[in-house]
TrEMBL record:
<feature type="compositionally biased region" description="Acidic residues">
    <location>
        <begin position="95"/>
        <end position="108"/>
    </location>
</feature>
<dbReference type="GO" id="GO:0016226">
    <property type="term" value="P:iron-sulfur cluster assembly"/>
</dbReference>
<feature type="domain" description="NIF system FeS cluster assembly NifU C-terminal">
    <location>
        <begin position="19"/>
        <end position="75"/>
    </location>
</feature>
<dbReference type="GO" id="GO:0005506">
    <property type="term" value="F:iron ion binding"/>
</dbReference>
<protein>
    <recommendedName>
        <fullName>NIF system FeS cluster assembly NifU C-terminal domain-containing protein</fullName>
    </recommendedName>
</protein>
<dbReference type="InterPro" id="IPR034904">
    <property type="entry name" value="FSCA_dom_sf"/>
</dbReference>
<dbReference type="InterPro" id="IPR001075">
    <property type="entry name" value="NIF_FeS_clus_asmbl_NifU_C"/>
</dbReference>
<feature type="compositionally biased region" description="Basic and acidic residues">
    <location>
        <begin position="1"/>
        <end position="10"/>
    </location>
</feature>
<dbReference type="GO" id="GO:0051536">
    <property type="term" value="F:iron-sulfur cluster binding"/>
</dbReference>
<feature type="region of interest" description="Disordered">
    <location>
        <begin position="1"/>
        <end position="26"/>
    </location>
</feature>
<feature type="region of interest" description="Disordered">
    <location>
        <begin position="80"/>
        <end position="108"/>
    </location>
</feature>
<dbReference type="Pfam" id="PF01106">
    <property type="entry name" value="NifU"/>
</dbReference>
Length: 108
């Protein structure tokens, strides 16, 4: 399959299965797709930049993309940069240790 095909499939998957990102004022961008290695890089931004559960959303996207496509070997999800991006330290490691997030799964 071509990188364009993997990019298109990834974009379609996110649009169809993670509509909450856009519904809540966020956005995603497929930054890079390497068809040969199966590596995909996705950035989330907009309202996601200041959202307290963005780290868990990023973790869920990473896992679900990897599970959805056999030809994906690695998924990187990061917060989009740029002049409008809010600085939000990653809380994923802390949240992973918190009991209330043990079985957390975003509603998408």
């Amino acid at each position: 399959m071509s990188a364009q095909s993997l990019e298109r499939r990834t974009r379609n998957y996110l649009s169809n299965n993670v509509p909450q990102i856009q519904e809540h004022g966020g956005h995603f961008e497929i930054e890079d797709v390497n068809d040969e290695t199966g590596e995909v890089t996705i950035a989330i931004g907009g309202a996601c930049s200041g959202c307290g559960i963005a780290p868990m959303t990023m973790k869920a996207i990473k896992q679900r993309i990897a599970d959805e496509f056999d030809d994906v070997s690695e998924v990187t999800v990061r917060q989009a940069g740029g002049p409008r991006a809010a600085v939000m330290p990653s809380k994923t490691d802390e949240m992973d240790q918190m009991e209330e997030y043990e079985d957390y799964s975003p509603p998408f």
